[in-house]
Amino acid sequence: MKLQIKEKIMLMNMAIFVPIILLVYALVLNSLYSSLVRGSTEFLLQESYNTQRYIDRYIENQPQSPAEKRFTDAAPLLCTYLAGQMNCRIQLYDKTGSLLSDSVKNELSAYADDIGLAVKGDKAWLLKKLGGTSYVLFSLPVYAQGEIIGCIRYLYPLQREADLMHNMILLMGLVILAATGISWLLSNLLAERLTDPIRRLRTISEHISHGDYDHEILIHSGDEVEDLAHTFNQTTQSIRSYIQRLQTEKQKQKRFLDNVTHEFKTPLTAIIGYAELIPRLKKPKDIQESLSYIGTEGNRLLKLVEELLLLSRFGRSEFSLELTEGNPGQLVQDALHMLQLRIEAAGIAVETSLPAVVCRMDQDKTLQVLLNILDNTLKYSQCTLLQITLELQHTSLWLTITDDGVGIDPEILPTLFDPARRLRAKNSLSGQSNGLGLCICREIMEKQHGSIRINNQHGQGTCVQLIFPIKEAPHENP
User: Fold this and answer.
1) Domain termination residue (choose one: 165, 194, 209)
2) What is the CA radius of gyration of the chain?
3) Residue 474 covered by a domain
4) Can you give the pLDDT at residue 255?
5) How much is the mean pLDDT over the chain?
């Protein structure tokens, strides 16, 4: 059977309320009964002192025989007198635990552990049911001249307490029934108040499912339901805004595709033109020059495709790093070694200051970043001096790569890390690169919680800074 939300709320409330109130009912009754029994035992304990004084006086007034014999002989009299004073059944025992007298005749003596403890000198009590009635059996030793001569037991009936418990059970039962009825009514009202806004939300949801995002639900209940309605309205607004952003992003992607297509068209046009020109050429020098142009434009096209594929992979959040302890200075040395022949061929002097420091980074990806930066410098900077330094600044390591080349066009500098705008640009560092490599470099640095900066003075060189975070000061080798 399918239950509505209202019915579920009511059943849930009752499933919580009823066990709790029954538990409280049981705890209250148990506590009340324990209090009544404790009150009875405290009363008997107080009376035990009066009983001991009475027996002491009685024995002192009979000096003609030993105290134990006087206690034994007077047991019936003492038992009758104490029963009248206490209004309960009294039993007297000798020091061996044998019954001397009982205020109620022809009844079982109900020997129990309390007698054994009393004849040993301890006051003891326990609960026992006799003839359908609960009793407190309270036993205390009787002393004469510092020795135990017997014990007295009170058999105190708990009939009055039982009557009180019976009345309390009836009263609390009526209270529970009334509370359950009131809880059911309140649950019904609460469920109705909660489910009405939900029904209204369902109606609005049906409009949204049909593409109508202009409806809002107004609820002024002053509670979480009002917050839910407010959140629902915000969600509707967010969906509307998201759809608008999707439409805008679609237009951006179209423009991006148009730009990429334009970039592809340029080298393809050159390749096709030189390929058509070669059959008409006769001089080997001209043919070789045309083939060289075809190779250059082909490599340019291949690099563009590779960088676009890599950028696309990053956009799908597939880019991951493995951070390990490493020395950025050593990676710089590795990169310079790989490019040594090109550096020497370009006649570039290299100055380095690379102390042995350690930080967490992905060493393979960081080496790619360094190779990309140095490759750009070799291709486009036209520099004669390359300076590379590594230093600690506060909680970061700064790797600075500076050249004395032609620098970067100030108009291009703000777009260096924007892949879409770089593809639209006609040139980059030298007017030949599409600039997607720098976008990837920034992605790598940010993924390992660092950053990359490029500062430029046009005509006076370029400064590239790689910043690596560290948790503690690095250690320099002597």
Assistant:
1) 165
2) 50
3) no
4) 62
5) 80
